[in-house]
Amino acid sequence: MSGVDPAFEKLFSSETKVDLVVLFHRNPGIADTVEGVARRIGRNGPEIEHDLDDFVSMGILRKRDSTNGKAILQLDRSKDKEMQNVLDHYFESLGDL
To answer: Which end of the chain is more exposed for a tag (fewer CB within 10 A), N or C?
Structure first.
């Protein structure tokens, strides 16, 4: 994907990440554990942990500890809005081709 914004590349670099983007956009208020998020997209917790960590490092998801010691993940709506702007810009640039 040459010439593509690095954030865009990281956002859609795996099928799991695409599933995660869809999940959190369709359900922006969900707050769940890794295992719960994995179950929602039909996967195992360990197989999606790296992708979730990428989203946390990008700021798209927030991670907080719950009272039982398991991390809870939730969409950061302000950072998500920034990512939506990146996507809008990318798709607008495709129209110029």
So the answer is: C
User: Where do we find the tokens 């359900």?
Assistant: 27
Helix (H) or strand (E) holding 6: helix 6-11
Note the pLDDT tens digit of each residue in 3-13: 666 777 777 88
Q: How far apart are CA 61 and CA 24, in angstroms?
A: 9
Rounded Cα distance between 46 and 65, Å, is: 18
Does the pLDDT value for residue 52 go beyond 90?
Answer: yes
CB 62 within 8 A of CB 24: no
Answer whether 33's CB lies under 8 Å from 73's CB. yes
Q: How far apart are CA 51 and CA 61, in angstroms?
A: 11
CA 46 – CA 58 distance, rounded (Å):
19
24: left (phi over 0), alpha (psi -120 to 50) or beta: alpha
Measured CA to CA, the distance from residue 26 to residue 4 in angstroms comes to 25
